[in-house]
Amino acid sequence: MTSKISELFNIKYPIIQGGMVWVSGYKLASAVSNAGGLGLIGSGSMYPDVLKEHIRKCKKATEKPFGVNIPMIYPDIEKLITIVIEEGVKIVFTSGGNPKLYTERLKKHGITVVHVVSSLKFALKSQDAGVDAVVAEGFEAGGHNGREETTTFTLLPIVKEKIYIPLIAAGGIATGRGMLAAMVLGADGVQVGSRFAASIESSAHNNFKNKVIETSEGDTILALKEISPVRMIKNDFYNELVSFSKNHTIEELKEFLGKRRLKKGIFEGNTKDGMLEIGQIAGVIHKIESAKEIIDNMVSEYFSIKKSI
Question: I want to staple 279 with a disulfide (CB 3.0 to 4.6 A). Which of 2, 24, 142, 221 is the partner?
């Protein structure tokens, strides 16, 4: 399945697994890479020493290419950058910040750099910064999101028209049918998050995975726009969040959120009081499968639908 993205990363299929916090450890990343996609270790929920451990374990678990996702909004960013360089990581996806901060430094060490964007403005800034590709992520996606609320299939052709580097689609893609639609609109590959969050190899708690499977249309919402937009499942925590935010300052809201809400929901499995980040596409996820099954099913459906058109 040849594309600019499969050639850029030297992978069989242009399918990238999202580097999600509390979800994307070395087990998931290596499983996706072994299945022909590109696995990403999600460093956002890892202390520097933990990231180093996951990189080393991933190297032992796969001989295929894999990368590390580094959200720039998290602490210890400088230490994380140093670790990926020292450990010889060949692919880094950055997000949530200015791509100019680390792109040049990473590329000097032979690292392929991709930046995640939610608008044409930042896609062009990323291209100017020298990244090798961009991920255009629509507001259907789970986790941190764009303020513009531009959908994936609107964003893709807008970005494709103006950039010359490879383009990866993200947000609302979990099937071969969705992958084909993204490619028709100009994507050279797709990044899949929510579908892999509910996989066997995901490090998320089974309570969270089962909650994802139970989620249907309208059960997720883009919240916290006053701080940093995040898509999450509506639960007791969300209801409490809405009530609290009406009568408190931004600083008080940040303190209320704390640092453990996401861990409590996704990693510890408290689906009532924890934050549950997931994309709108959760509505088509009906069972927990292995990374290989997910990729095989996507590829099979992609070619089947393409042939029937």
Answer: 142
